[in-house]
Amino acid sequence: MSLIVDVFPARSDNFGYLVHDTASGRTAAIDAPETAAIRNALVHRGWTLTDIFITHHHIDHVEAIPELKAEFGARVVGPRGEADKIADLDELVSGGDSVSLGETTFEVYDAPGHTLGHIVFHDKAGKHLFTADALFSLGVGRMFEGTPGPMWAGVKALRELPDDTLVYCGHEYTASNAKFALSIDPDNAALQKRAAEVKDLQASGRATIPFLLGEDKAANPFLRADDPVLARHYGLEGADPAEVFAAIRKGKDNF
Q: What span, in angstroms and rounded, lies between the C-alpha atoms of 81 and 83?
């Protein structure tokens, strides 16, 4: 049993993903940002779309659902908490549920904040984590709908996953995230190393994902809201980490 992940660009700065279960031949798109990009990736691989796994309701993650479902008859799985915002869902899931793609099982985690019902998909056996806009390389998504406490709890739960987990996020924001992170945590050696790596990757035209969760735990300020270094930066020594998380998020919003 194995899972092949195909990564491709979509829209202006989205990442598109196809995941292919080799045992069964089933193929899922993780989110549906753009019909043409997904169709081209399928043709390139010689795969047929059987499933679509949706993380949240924003248009740049769901726009292609109607066309893809009409063309391929794909099963569409999405967040129970956003069922009223996403058309054409066939199966609803939330944290604690699991979804099968042939012989591959994805565990579902709640990751509220960017949107209230945002979910992520984790292939535990293959060590693949699809986080969309809940967790980026060196960042997290804007807190459009949620509040700091639940959003911090959600990313902290993802932080508990193994260090060798490969993370596939929704957008290519790593360079701007690195610039902000260095502005608030300039002495972090792991962050300095990752920022240099990002610069080299982009100079050679390569994507900055997937990234190792363990490396992001050491470098991403949003995963380190309980680190006294960041609390001190914001003058919040002894504060609840959720308060520090909120300060980091506000800082990035205004950066």
A: 6
Indicate yes or no: pTM above 0.85.
Answer: yes
What gap in Å lies between CA 7 and CA 67, rounded to an integer? 20
pLDDT of the residue at 188: 98
Residue 13 annotated as catalytic? no
User: Is 114 a known ligand-binding residue?
Assistant: yes
- pLDDT tens for 51-67 read 999 999 999 999 999 99
**Which member of 56, 57, 122, 233 is catalytic?**
56
From 114, 118, 122, 128, the catalytic residue:
114
Tell me, yes or no, if 44 is annotated catalytic: no
Q: Is 60 annotated as a binding residue?
A: yes
Q: How far apart are CA 98 and CA 103, in angstroms?
A: 12
Which domains are seen in the chain, by residue range?
3-253 (3.60.15.10)
Residue 44, marked binder: no
Annotation marks residue 163 as catalytic: no
The rounded distance, in Å, linking the Cα atoms of 66 and 76 is: 10
Catalytic status, residue 88: no
Say how far apart CA 247 and CA 107 lie, in whole Å: 31
Give residue 52's pLDDT.
Answer: 98
Q: Is 56 a catalytic residue?
A: yes
Among residues 57, 122, 171, 233, the one annotated as catalytic is 171
Beta-carbon count within 10 A of 255 CB: 12
Choose the catalytic residue: 21, 31, 51, 58: 58
Distance between CA atoms of residues 246 and 22, nearest Å: 42
Q: What is the band of 150 on the pLDDT scale with cuts at 50, 70, 90? A: very high
The helix (H) or strand (E) run that includes residue 29 is strand 27-30
Angle, CA of 171, 34 and 1, to the nearest 5°? 75
Which of 60, 123, 185, 216 is labelled catalytic?
Answer: 60
